[in-house]
Write a structure and sequence with these properties.
This is DUF6593 domain-containing protein. InterPro entries: DUF6593 (IPR046528). The chain has about 200 residues and is mostly beta strands. It has one domain. The protein is about 15% helix and about 35% strand. A twelve-stranded antiparallel beta sheet has the order 7-6-5-4-3-2-1-12-11-10-9-8. Strand 9 and strand 10 form a beta hairpin. The C terminus is likely disordered.
């Protein structure tokens, strides 16, 4: 399925299909304590059931925390600031200077996000390198965005929960834009001094 970002901002967007149906909404707000919180939601009967994940963005002195109902322990503590799984724990890397990031799916399979020059970000299975998702742009000939070039996230039929794909994509794309220097509309203070791409602010040893 193809999800178009409207607008093209991974922290403030609606992911819609070609026929205009909204599947996910990502919003980011700043609390009175100065902490930025991104909320990923999908259509549901209640507010609680709509929450896919929360990302509590860290600063230079504190890590970024990720909370999702699919996680265990503190990782599932939706709405509880200061708790969760650190971004570098959820999206880990195997080599110190690599920009690729890995995560374990709810299906027990390891997945890898990697940037491909001239294409975009690609998610593959570590087991067989099968492409699971790709974020790129294309000129649309049909559907709601016919006649426009739009960025989209294409997710192939897979065993991993789509919520984890969308969550990991949002974090990866935000950090990719910061490294590329085109993230001026994103959170300015959320630097990544260790260059690890997970947005944990370097606050975790």
């Amino acid at each position: 399925m193809d999800f178009f970002l409207v607008p093209n901002d991974p922290q403030k967007t609606v992911l819609v299909s070609a026929n205009g149906v909204a599947h996910y909404q990502i919003s980011t707000s700043k609390g009175t304590d100065g902490i930025h919180l991104s909320l990923i939601q999908r259509p549901a009967d209640s507010e609680a059931d709509s929450i896919v994940a929360e990302v509590e963005w860290g600063t230079w002195g504190t890590p970024t925390f990720v909370r999702c109902p699919l996680f265990r322990g503190f990782g599932s503590c939706i709405g509880k600031m200061g708790l969760g799984v650190t971004a570098r724990t959820f999206l880990y890397k195997r080599r110190p200077f690599s920009k690729s990031r890995y995560f374990m799916g709810n299906d027990g399979v390891e997945y890898r996000w990697k940037a491909r020059r001239g294409i975009g970000c690609v998610l593959t299975s570590s087991n067989n390198n099968e492409e699971i998702a790709i974020y790129t742009s294309t000129f649309n000939n049909e559907g709601l965005f016919a006649g426009e070039r739009k960025h989209f996230l294409r997710i192939q039929p897979c065993s991993v929960d789509l919520d984890l794909v969308v969550l990991s994509f949002m974090i990866m794309e935000k950090k990719r834009r910061e490294r590329a220097g085109d993230g001026s509309s994103l959170i300015a203070h959320d630097s990544d001094p260790q260059g690890d791409g997970a947005g944990d602010g370097g606050g975790e040893g």
